[in-house]
Fold RNA polymerase sigma-70 factor (ECF subfamily).
Amino acid sequence: MDTFRQLEVLSDEQLVEHANRGDAQSPAAFETLYRRHRDTVLRLARRYTRGDEALALDAAQETFIYLLGKFPPPPENQLTLTAKLTTFLFPVARHAALSATKKKARLRLTTGDALPEPIAESPIPLDDGLDALLGRLSDEHCEVVLLRFVDDMTVPEIARALDIPQGTVKSRLHHAVAQLRRDPATKKYFELP
């Protein structure tokens, strides 16, 4: 069995332990984490860049470069998970996407030119129906729905990842679920409470 197949069955915590060792399996452990979480990080980045594919890809890349920097050497830089890996990744992705969007807006103001819209297709295809369904939600509602129902995070984990109170997470989930229930397409993607 090859290294990637062996690592795919491990939990995120176990993969982080492998990556922290700095041994021969570390690059494969990081790549397994990347493969496991790239779609979700890219989807989140797309939401914050308002669908700008180039900015979203840059933000996702920055997120994983930041994660890679948390692995040895040096040992004092090791990543210690206190929650799910996504709780660590989402604030980084959110910050990278918002920073890229602000930078692009400043560039437009400075040059006075409209930048050409990106034409590249995503290398990681997302279901258009799901994207359209989530596009009907506000950014805040979409974010908590993705974290709760797609990434299976708990309310406390979402609150930590977004740095907001748990009550705010519950409120956003409540309003988002109410809105999603009104759309018949929801049943194809989510099992709502």
Remarks:
- Confidence is low (pLDDT under 50) at residues 115-126.
